[in-house]
Amino acid sequence: MQVFSLHTLLLAILTFFAYSISLAVYRLSFSPLAAFPGPKLAALTLWDEFYYDVIKRGRYTWKIAELHQQYVSLLSLLESYYDELYVASSTRRTIKYEWAMKGFGPTIATFSTQGHELHRTRAAALAPFFSKASVYQLEPSVQSIVDQLVARLRTVQGTDSNINMIDVFTSLTGDVISQYAFARPFGFMQSPNFAPHWHQSMMSISENFNVFKQFEWLEPMMRNIPPSLAEWASPKMSSFFGVQDVCQHQYPLGERVCGRMVDAPGEGARN
User: Fold this and answer.
1) What is the DSSP letter of 267?
2) Chain segment 8-32, per-residue pLDDT in tens
3) What Cα–Cα distance (Å) separates residue 198 from each residue in 149, 177, 180, 229, 267?
């Protein structure tokens, strides 16, 4: 039995190496990317993208820009394809890149819908909310929230207080969207320091997208972790789970929910 197990293990290892070698030969010699000059590692494996986006924390876009400069002569030859790539749906049905959408998991959100027709159907359901008439009706609500921001900024004018404008505009955006979607803002603008935990939680989640692309089984596993456990591990994620409760379960924006989203543990004065 032991000999059989060892033989099976060796066979599995040899099969894996044979598959890896044949896949490498195909990608470097016969795949569509083989005809393009560039770093062979990028054509060989998506781990190259993982390195820049996860290990280097989102530097893959800059790496692409660097490669564009390096192979600018080739890109100039491909300029004629610009009008073919970026076209309206009446010219060609566009399907979103499956690899890029993996980071969002199996979601029904319009943004991560791959198929053209399904995306068009889902987008059409949202279109009335972004019509000119709807935006005009929203203007007083937006102005009210902006007035709150101006009033908050005036209170620190001429003082030594420091304000992180990234937190400010993240809170402003969150309150505008929630006012429109739920007829009441989340209340981020009322937070003493503009709810810095909200921006931090969004940045943390966005970094996970690149990990989920490479390890797609992680996304459903993380999604099934009880919120109470996740909040215990990362208290500043409480605002995210508060928003998630509202969106998924249609909870009313009562004081308990809004308070949970604004008064995250560990938020103190920032001077």
Assistant:
1) -
2) 888 889 999 999 999 999 999 898 8
3) 17, 14, 19, 18, 11
